[in-house]
Amino acid sequence: MISAFFIFNQKGEVLISRLYRTDLKRSIADVFRIQVVSNSDVRSPIITLGSTSFFHVRINNLYIVAVTKCNANAALVFEFCYRFISIAKSYFGKVDEEAVKNNFVLIYELVDEICDFGYPQNSEADTLKSYITTESVMSTNIAPEESSRITVQATGATSWRRGDVKYKKNEAFVDVVENVNLSMSAKGTTLRADVDGHIQMRAYLSGTPECKFGLNDKLVIDKNERGTADAVELDDCRFHQCVRLNEFDSTRTISFIPPDGEFELMRYRATSNVKLPLKVIPSVTEIGTTQVQYVVTIKTNFSNKLSATNVILKIPTPLNTTSVDCKVASGKAKYVPAENVVIWKIPRIQGGQEVTFSAHAALTSTTTRQVWARPPIDVDFQVLMFTASGLIVRFLKVFEKSNYQSIKWVRYLTKASGSYQIRF
Amino acid sequence: MSGQGAQDAKFFQRGKIQEFRAELQAAESKDKKFTKRKTVLKKIVANITMGNDMSPLFGDVIQCLGIPSLEIKKMVYLFLVCYGRSKADQIRAVMPNFLQDCEDRNPLIRALAIRTMSYIPAPIVVEELEDPLRHALKDRDPYVRKTAAICVAKLYNADPRKCERNGFVELLRDLLLDTNATVVANAVAALTEIGDRQDGVIFKLNLTVANKLLAAVGESSEWGQIYILDSLLRYVPEKHEDAELMAERVIVQLQHANSAVVLTTIKVLLYLMNYMENRRLMDYICKKMGPPLVTLLSSGPEVQYVALRNILLIIQRRPQVLKNDVKVFFCKYNDPIYVKLAKLEIMYRLAREENAREVLAELQEYASEVDVDFVRKAVRSIGRLAIKVQPAADDCIKALLELIETKVTYVVQEAVIVIKDVFRRYPGRYEGIIPTLCANLDALDEPESKAAMIWIVGQFADRIENADELMDDLTYTFLEEPTEVQLALLSASVKLFIYKSHSDTTKALVHKVLKWATEEVDNPDLRDRGFMYWRLLALSPAAASEVVLAEKPAITTDADRMDRGALDQLLLHTGTLGSIYHKNPETFIRGATGKALTDSPALNPLSRQVLVPVARTQLLPPASIRVPGPVDPRVVNPPSPVLPPRQNGASLPADAGAALVPSASQASTASTSPATQDLLGGEDDGEGEAETEDHDHEDLARAQAVAPASDPYAALDNAFGGHIADAPQHNGDANDDLLF
């Protein structure tokens, strides 16, 4: 299992160093610095030298690193790194060099708690916060009864929730967020269009609420079986630790006792009948070797009551571009030489609308005959109250022994960032 | 939820031992709420982090243990974990504090004490830990028990024999039946660690215990689920139904959000399928495994990478898992390079006649990207696609010719390398493109592509008008070329001579090359081959012609599928480093234990036949401790090498060595012909390889015909040439010791 856990900054300085096993020395950190931090061409998140393997995940210029000397479960090691990041986010709000340095003592406490001898242990932020806090605690001050309650929870069947949660107003917010992946060929055929969705929940519910959740979904195990027309076909779904998988398997009901506060209830994937919110029609012509002519049109493909916001197109230009003359009716377009793209930002496009971009790029003549690789146009956007898969929350029921009324809010968001690509 | 309040970054400053000592002493007076000492300790911890040796402060720091502040206690403990081992003489002074904490009323403190003590493998600490640990393993608080379980693994690591003598392994085993799922999971993790040691005890599960563990999965944390699921591979089903029932219970975990739970579940399912008979169930399981595997591709890029490398193995063993899903493996432009390279291999493997067109279009797209490795691999994949899918060959060749037109040197070189293989796969179909290749001769500067081109010139010397001129040019630098090219030049010039023996130039050329090869070159291979050709030509040019120009067997893509037995074995490591590098862990990690399918009456015949036993580098005979035998309270276990016969899955130890070799009777049934015919009839072990692709059957046939080769993995990586990032770097044992 994990022999050591490190956090490095961009310069390769060690910000956190915790050795779980005696099969390593701290000087192993130097090896990572040389092999990864100061290496400009790192081509794998795992590097194995001899029997020692370094796993790293990058976040905000930090390297979260786990080192092993055995045939470690790689998925587990990376999930642990991800989990550390999410715990740190939940504790400090952000995960960067400043936050790590400012809280290093607390981080040592955390990494001692969430991983023992290299074996990840309970890592539910909510539970951890009940006994690892930023305020200093006197050891004599914790009543043994109180600690027993904590330990039972930390090792219990619902390790993600404290029993004594109380709210005046019982509310639950459900956000259905869909990321659309699109890859469109130059000929305009869809190579790939699918949805990575997740349902984010913020539960502010008292006591130990028992929730039942319903969607208009239909999990497709076999593509040949067809269901009712209005059901959305999900290719797969994965659930938070709190969802009873046995129950889902036998009756398809999603039932659970939620953690307090924000968590990701489920993730799903849909590939059939994906409604693409934006249609992008590029026309890019190379005129001789010194000019490129662009006409890019976006059409929205949803009801005119909705709108796409924060639309950002990155339209690639050849490497030897000197200047780009852009004409846009809405939004702003700007040539960014450092990235070899024109960035076209449109704050809002109403449903049913169409906007066009036209530009003219001037190129220097070059001697190299290297053909322009034509990277795809990348489109980022957000559409509120729209799901590309057509998924709808049918119900969310909350049962609690005190029988309180609870208010539920549902929001839908479809977005793309870095995954909506149109080749030309 | 504050944290904004903490402003500790200022402590990251190099400090001197003397200063810290003085500060600690000064802080002893007037230190309300201990803030002064807290500050100094923080500075010390920051310095430890930065790699400064703070061990001289040992005596000063442990003075702070008496302070009733949990934060200070934890910092001192951290200090002790860092330096405790090297200060074995002074650590004695801390023992009373530790022992007092072990008795604390607060379970968190009790757990913290034993956890910290067990991190310090100094003999004195280990000795003092024994009693508290024994109590902790039976503590009424589950948090203490789950911590104690891991402590046993630590203790075993420090002193295995002592740990056994003290009966901790048995106590640990009893925790397998604890009422708390977290305790069970940690006990499993600890036993697994002990069982994986080469000098450890044998940890095997019988059906009863395996089922009990499985019952704990639902209440475990996600990590606990992984430990428990992982341990199920230590259970060997004796009956098909046992394996089938267990798979049905495990399968729900595929829906878990944690990718490691998903991959471990898949590992268990793949393992159990080796012991199953019910084909419908196996088809169902395969169908259920596909979507979760694809979903892993929406995790972070690191997990995607792990998933992709595993998918590559899984689809070779169970092709029906992702048969129709090639599109999801198309690369996104901004995928990290390691994800792209891994996807490319999967795309190639999933390519079939039905999707060849789409795959080719994608590969062409990639061939114009920027990353050299990726482009090369894409170009090579186009060629391999031509070889694999016959109906797509024409389009692939067209694509390769277009790529050669770009004149980008590395693209041209890759194209030449694969085209050579295409020629061998489809003799007489594409030789028309040779002139185009010859026109690009100058672009070739890498040995592999140069050798490939020389092979083409030699092989088709009769169709290339100016072959002798080309060869003359090519041999110009003969003595400076790498061996690979020299060998190719030697063979090609002999071929040229045989084709055009009447020509004086070729005669002179072959003479020159043979002379160089035999007189000027040091490489024995080259020299020997030179002598061989020379004598052959001298004795009988006709015979030489028959030998040198003999018809070569057409190339197939079989060779880049991994051997079935090797796959079975590698899949036991699903999700681990071994599955990423496609190597058995014992081959690249020191001290790692190999795994092999264990024979049982339920094991399907083909798996048995291709079973690769583990090469156990056993140093000591394993101590045989009865694990687990929880139903028997009167357990006394003299380490006994005498094993009772296995019956009805009762709690009996099985010798690891014995299980690996099929018994004589089983081995003989497996090799008789009825079994073989069944396999060839497509009725293999029922994993529904109703694949219509021919080579699937060929592969099965091969699998049972060929005994496991010495290196069954040799084939895989060759399929994509030398540039593969996914390999552990061997840098000699000396270096490894440096890392230690």
UniProtKB/TrEMBL annotation, chain A:
<dbReference type="InterPro" id="IPR018240">
    <property type="entry name" value="Clathrin_mu_CS"/>
</dbReference>
<keyword id="KW-0168">Coated pit</keyword>
<dbReference type="GO" id="GO:0006897">
    <property type="term" value="P:endocytosis"/>
</dbReference>
<dbReference type="Pfam" id="PF01217">
    <property type="entry name" value="Clat_adaptor_s"/>
</dbReference>
<dbReference type="GO" id="GO:0005886">
    <property type="term" value="C:plasma membrane"/>
</dbReference>
<dbReference type="InterPro" id="IPR022775">
    <property type="entry name" value="AP_mu_sigma_su"/>
</dbReference>
<dbReference type="InterPro" id="IPR011012">
    <property type="entry name" value="Longin-like_dom_sf"/>
</dbReference>
<feature type="domain" description="MHD">
    <location>
        <begin position="169"/>
        <end position="423"/>
    </location>
</feature>
<keyword id="KW-1003">Cell membrane</keyword>
<dbReference type="InterPro" id="IPR028565">
    <property type="entry name" value="MHD"/>
</dbReference>
<comment type="similarity">
    <text>Belongs to the adaptor complexes medium subunit family.</text>
</comment>
<protein>
    <submittedName>
        <fullName>Clathrin adaptor mu subunit</fullName>
    </submittedName>
</protein>
<keyword id="KW-0254">Endocytosis</keyword>
<dbReference type="GO" id="GO:0030131">
    <property type="term" value="C:clathrin adaptor complex"/>
</dbReference>
<keyword id="KW-0653">Protein transport</keyword>
<keyword id="KW-0813">Transport</keyword>
<dbReference type="InterPro" id="IPR036168">
    <property type="entry name" value="AP2_Mu_C_sf"/>
</dbReference>
<dbReference type="InterPro" id="IPR001392">
    <property type="entry name" value="Clathrin_mu"/>
</dbReference>
<dbReference type="Pfam" id="PF00928">
    <property type="entry name" value="Adap_comp_sub"/>
</dbReference>
<dbReference type="GO" id="GO:0005905">
    <property type="term" value="C:clathrin-coated pit"/>
</dbReference>
<dbReference type="GO" id="GO:0006886">
    <property type="term" value="P:intracellular protein transport"/>
</dbReference>
<dbReference type="InterPro" id="IPR050431">
    <property type="entry name" value="Adaptor_comp_med_subunit"/>
</dbReference>
From TrEMBL, chain B:
<feature type="compositionally biased region" description="Low complexity">
    <location>
        <begin position="662"/>
        <end position="680"/>
    </location>
</feature>
<keyword id="KW-0813">Transport</keyword>
<protein>
    <recommendedName>
        <fullName>AP complex subunit beta</fullName>
    </recommendedName>
</protein>
<dbReference type="InterPro" id="IPR016342">
    <property type="entry name" value="AP_complex_bsu_1_2_4"/>
</dbReference>
<feature type="compositionally biased region" description="Acidic residues">
    <location>
        <begin position="681"/>
        <end position="693"/>
    </location>
</feature>
<comment type="similarity">
    <text>Belongs to the adaptor complexes large subunit family.</text>
</comment>
<keyword id="KW-0653">Protein transport</keyword>
<dbReference type="InterPro" id="IPR002553">
    <property type="entry name" value="Clathrin/coatomer_adapt-like_N"/>
</dbReference>
<dbReference type="InterPro" id="IPR016024">
    <property type="entry name" value="ARM-type_fold"/>
</dbReference>
<feature type="domain" description="Clathrin/coatomer adaptor adaptin-like N-terminal">
    <location>
        <begin position="22"/>
        <end position="538"/>
    </location>
</feature>
<comment type="function">
    <text>Adaptins are components of the adaptor complexes which link clathrin to receptors in coated vesicles. Clathrin-associated protein complexes are believed to interact with the cytoplasmic tails of membrane proteins, leading to their selection and concentration.</text>
</comment>
<keyword id="KW-0472">Membrane</keyword>
<dbReference type="InterPro" id="IPR026739">
    <property type="entry name" value="AP_beta"/>
</dbReference>
<dbReference type="Pfam" id="PF01602">
    <property type="entry name" value="Adaptin_N"/>
</dbReference>
<dbReference type="InterPro" id="IPR011989">
    <property type="entry name" value="ARM-like"/>
</dbReference>
<feature type="region of interest" description="Disordered">
    <location>
        <begin position="623"/>
        <end position="709"/>
    </location>
</feature>
